[in-house]
Amino acid sequence: MSLKLKRATSSSLFHSDEESVTKKAHQLYQAFVASLERCEATKDERVFLQIVQGWLKDNVSAFEPDERRIYALDDFSSLALEELPIEYSDLNAAEEFERLRDASPSSLEGLAARIRDILWAGLVIRSRKRCPRCNEDDLKVLQETSSSQLVYTCDMCGWAQLRDGTEWSCRGEVAPAPTAMLRRHGLLSRGI
Ligand SMILES: [Zn+2]
């Protein structure tokens, strides 16, 4: 797992200008939205993400190698969703679905970024620690896969720290922190 810590801006990659939508991206996007619609996935965040991940697994080969790498599509498609704290995340399936339906991707990269953003929002929980560098967002909680220690990161500026506030400088691989690990650290019951 080598998720990028800082999210690329994806909003600018989406607009409703049909002329600039590539045929392939548009077809993939329509199939993606249809799969969510069919399964009534918008009523439950966990079901929603299962459908998103299932669709990604089936279609990941449609994306360019660079898109797969930059947006960690292969990593996201292989995560064990049952181990992750979806119910504690910021994701609202109904709102996400509305946004998806209203905004066609202008490119395959736009679709890749959107899918990554949805999975990131649903699988990585937000802490109550404010980013000490930019002060614009609360830090998200990840785990460093080699050591299983918690790493807090900022979506806005890319800052990363350990729980005690020390800057995380080794920059090894990270992954969403599993529910069991967050519980073990007492984070889900009394604030993070
Ligand atoms: Zn920041």
Entry summary:
This protein is of the alpha+beta class and 192 residues long. Helices cover 39% and strands 11% of the residues. Bound molecules: zinc ion (ZN).
Give your account of this protein's structure.
The protein is of the alpha+beta class and 192 residues long. The chain has two domains: 11-123, no CATH class; 126-184, no CATH class. The chain has seven helices and five strands; from the N terminus they run ααααααβββββα. The protein has helices at residues 23-38, 45-59, 65-70, 73-77, 93-102, 108-123, 179-184, and strands at residues 126-130, 138-144, 150-153, 160-161, 174-176. A hairpin with a 5-residue loop joins strand 2 and strand 3. Helix 1 packs antiparallel against helix 2 (45-59). The two termini are 23 Å apart. The structure holds zinc ion. Residues 131, 133-134, 136-137, 154, 156-157, 159 line the site of zinc ion.
Set down the secondary structure blueprint.
Blueprint: H1 23-38, H2 45-59, H3 65-70, H4 73-77, H5 93-102, H6 108-123, E1 126-130, E2 138-144, E3 150-153, E4 160-161, E5 174-176, H7 179-184
Antiparallel strand pairs: 1-2, 2-3, 2-5, 3-4
Key structural traits:
single chain; 192 residues; alpha+beta; 2 domains; binds zinc ion
Classify the secondary structure makeup into a structural class: alpha+beta
Alpha-carbon distance between the termini?
23 Å
Regions with little confidence, pLDDT below 50 for 5+ residues: 6-21
- Percentage of residues in strands: 5-15%
Number of helices: 7
Using the alpha-carbon principal axes, give the shape. globular
Portion of residues in helices?
25-40%
Bound molecule kinds, no repeats: zinc ion
Cα-atom Rg, whole angstroms? 17 Å
Tell me, rounded to a whole number, the average pLDDT: 86
Largest sheet, if any?
5 strands, antiparallel
Order of helices and strands: HHHHHHEEEEEH
Tell me how many strands there are: 5
How many structurally independent domains? 2
